[in-house]
Amino acid sequence: MHFSEALELMIELQRMDSGLDELEKIQKVARQEIAALEGGLSGAKARLQDGKKAQEDLAKERKTLEIEAGSLETKIKKYQSQESEVKSNEQFLALKHETEKAKEDKGKAEEKVLELMFREDEGKKKVQELSGELGQVEKKLAEDRKVLETKIADCEKAAAEKRVERKAKLAEVPQDLGASYESLRNHGKKIAVAQVLEDQTCSGCKMKVPPQVLNEIKKAMAIQHCDCGRYLYVKA
Question: pTM for the complete prediction?
């Protein structure tokens, strides 16, 4: 086989590989989008959980204060019942002081209870909003996942067909050239067969192609390599 024919086969093989690379890119992006949607779902669930936890904490705090207020009310009634039993003015004043102190503490506790009740009402609204947000995120994830997974499956189907074609095309390439081509691809050079651009640079690495090498390529004297290792060709 003439080297120009082998080079043309490698160029065709590269076109196939570029198509496969594009399909892989589409699948990668689709999977990233699914992951981002799942991340959004996890975030929405966490926010809802935090909202519910905050509600539980407020309810516990309110319940504690209500018990405290109830205990203070019992204490106040006890002090008031003892006022008629004290035998000295000093004891009466001390008892009166304790009663007033208990009333003041009860008032503060009741005021705090009201504040917590207001915050609970606000929290309930927030939880409802977060619950609605979660529902929307779940709906979007389900809808978008279906579309994205279909895209991934379609790409995989197309890629499977292209891989069969690629295998056949690679078999047409002389073994040594095919192995070299594969090695370049496996070492990260997705463009293994690079076109020499109008500015006489390699389209793969952008380095200047020496005039002698360019002249030999144009005369089709032999397959030429760039210093980066890629095969070179000039577009007809």
Answer: 0.76
